[in-house]
Amino acid sequence: MLSDIIDVLADPVDGTPLSGADDFSRLVSESGHSYDVARQGYVTLAGGAGLRHEGDDMSMINDRETFLSRGHFAPFVEAVTSSVHDSLDDAEVPDDAHPVILEVGAGTGYYLAHTLDDVIGSRGVGLDVSVHAARHLAKCHPRVGAVAADVWARLPLRDASVDVITVVFAPRNAAEFARVLKPGGQVIVLAADRGHLAELRDPLGIIDVEEGKVDRLIEQAAGHLRPVGGSEYIEFAMNLDRDSIAAQIGMSPSARHIPAPELAERIASLPETMTVTARAGITRLQHA
């Protein structure tokens, strides 16, 4: 709930602290700005122009929920949670400190909820530019506060307020991450690597992963964040039926590039089940 994380939220316009008002039906800043809390439990924190991007639509969010709930990405989920534990241990965060874990591009909150279940007493900020995602985030876990906000704008969080940031197949803003991280805090990035979903590339004509993507994200963070050790690569095989394949493609950027009828026809031509490779690199970053 938003009340669990109100101590880290800030006005997206001027960075002043936010507090709950009228039984948390709205959040107000010290400078007088007010942000209504939606009846679904999330809040949109954006400047005067509002959110500049729409993010994932309802169909993409539903596909993400379908695919992830079947456990196909379980090794990725476990790897992210394990890295959060490692980051908290590195920073010597006490067990009773109620650490704040921010997930950027959190989608349905599947990864964040798993991490909060595993890290006792932790609190989660689920941030996504999609209001459809924010609605899911608001109900994904009792200790998650759901925020609709743009990662490319000033994050609606106080300086040095977050213990760990997780980014799973989502955009990154190194300068803002460095600002909101506590001293000793870390960013955990899970990024698809060459070979991810390789068996589906040709038959479906979906977008390939760019070569050297993990190395490039480290380069882009330079000056703000630096790597903690080397990246770890995770690869495993998934046994996917056509429905799962449709959900996987539907939750990805490829869904925007292939007309739905054409994509459905291509999926229908696939075998009933396929063995598909999942591959990604997980990288931990800290203040430069």
UniProtKB/TrEMBL annotation:
Coiled coil: none
Residues reported in the UniProt entry to bind Zn(2+): H33
Pfam families: Methyltransf_25 (PF13649)
Gene Ontology MF annotations: metal ion binding; methyltransferase activity
SUPFAM superfamilies for this protein: S-adenosyl-L-methionine-dependent methyltransferases
InterPro entries: Methyltransf_25, Methyltransf_Superfamily, rRNA_m1G-MeTrfase_A_prd, SAM-dependent_MTases_sf
Protein name: Methyltransferase domain-containing protein
Native species: Corynebacterium halotolerans YIM 70093 = DSM 44683
